[in-house]
Here is the input.
Amino acid sequence: MEYETIVGLEVHAELNTKTKIYCNCKNAFGLEVNTQICPICTGMPGTLPTLNEKVVEYAVKMGHATNCSINNVCKQDRKNYFYPDLPKAYQISQADIPLCENGYVEIMMNGEEKRIGITRIHIEEDAGKMLHNDAFQGSLVDFNRCGVPLIEIVSEPDMRSSAEAKAYLDTLKSILQYIDISDCKMQEGSIRCDVNVSVRPKGSTEFGKRVEMKNVNSFSGAMRAIDYEANRQIEALERGEEIYQETRRWDDQKGMNILLRSKEDAQDYRYFPEPDLTTIYMPLERVEELKNSLPELPNAKIKRYVKELGLSQVDAELIAENLPRCRLFDECIKLGGCTAKNVSNWVLADVSKYMNETGKDIADSNLTAEKLVKIITLIESGKISNNSGKIIFEEIIQNNADIDKVIEEKGLVQISDDSAIEKLVNEVMAANQKSVDDYRGGKTNALGFLVGQCMKASKGQANPAKCKELVLKYLNG
Ligand code: ADP
Ligand code: MG
Ligand code: ZN
Here is the structure.
C-alpha cells in the first residue's frame, strides 16, 4: 500500500526585544549564567509581571506578515506544569484566544506555490535552561532564559513531506528576519520546533493519529525526524499495529526517536486566565499602523526579481533568502548602471563566498553598493576584465582600496583596442605555428589553446572576446 505523510509544525521563535516579557531584565544570549535574573522572572512569591508592549507589537507584525487576523483584544493564560527550569511552576501563555489566527504562508515547491495554513500565533514566556554536568553528577539550572519572549506559530497539518516542512521553516525564518523580530539563530536556540507527523493510505481523506516529536534542533534535523517517524509509522501499520497519539524524543545523533510519554491534553495543564495581568488591548489604528510598517516580504521580493528584473527563480530565491545579501542587491539595483543579472552573479558568487568564508556580514565590510556597481559597470563597458574585477574586489575587502588607484597601480585597464590585440595575436600565432596548422587541419580545439596563449601574452589584460574574434580572423583569413 502507498502512504501519504502529514506534517504540522509548532515553531517557537525568541523575539529580539531589549528586555524580557514581564520584567526589565536584559534579553540577551550567552551572558554568564544566572546574571540576567530578578525576583519576577525567577518566580519569587508576591512579585507581579508587567507585559512588555513590544512583544505584542512584534507578534502582531508576524501575524500580518502571515496573513492572520489579529485579535486586538485578548488575554494571557497560565499553563501549569512542573519542571526544574520553570520556577513558577506555570508558564504564562495564551490558550483559547491567541493574538493572531487563521493565516497562511506561501512556500515554493519545485517552482510551484503552495499555501500552508497558520492556525494561530500566540505570545508566551520561555523557560530556563538545564545544564547537565557530568563532573557535578547532576543538573544545574540557568534562569537567564526565563521570561525571554517567544511567539509560538502553529501550522495546520498542511505539509505532505519533509521537503515541504523544510521549505515552510525556511520561509518562516526569512519572514522573521525581514521583519526583524528574531535573531533566528538555530545554534542559539532562538528558533525551535516541535514536529507532528502522521501517515495515512494514499487517497484517504481522514487523518491518522499524530505523533509529536520534541528536541528537534535544526531544520535538517526536522527533515530527518519526519522521514524517520513516517517510516516508523508505516512499518508499524504494515505489521498490523496501531499508532497511538504520543510524544517522542528525537535523537539526531542516533537518527531515531524514543517514546517520552503518551500525549498530554490541554486539560492536563489546567489552563486558566492569568490573574496578575490585565486584558491585552491594541487600538485598531495601531494594528493597522503595524501592518503598513512591514517591509517588502521575501515572496513578494522573489516575484519582483523574476518578473521585473529577469532573474531565474533559483537566483531570486538565493538572493532573497539572505537578508544582508538582498539588501546589497537591492541597493545596487537602485543605483543602476549595470544589469541585474551581473549584480546577481556577483552577489551570489564573490560576495556570498566572502560571507561564508569569514562568517561576516557584508554590511560590516569595506564593500559598499556604490563600489560593487562601479566594478560591474567597468566590466560591462569592457574597461576592465572580469578577472581584474575580482582583483579589485579583493583589494577593497582587504585594504579598502580606491578602485581607480588599483586599476592604475596594477595596470588593470583592459586592452580592447583592435590594433594592439592584432599585433599580439600575430606574434603569438607565429610562435605557435604547430597549433595553427592543427586548427587549419581540422583540430578545432586548438582554438582554445591559442586564445589562451594570447591572453597569457597580454598578462590577462586583453579583452577575451576581442582576442577570440581576432584569433579566428587570423586562422580563417
Ligand atoms: P498541542 O498543544 O497538543 O501540541 P497544538 O494545537 O499546539 O496541539 O498543535 C497541534 C499541531 O499538530 C499542529 O501543528 C497541527 O497542524 C498538527 N497536527 C494536527 N493533527 C495532525 C495530524 N493528523 N498529522 C500531523 N500533524 C497534525
Ligand atoms: Mg504542542
Ligand atoms: Zn527578570
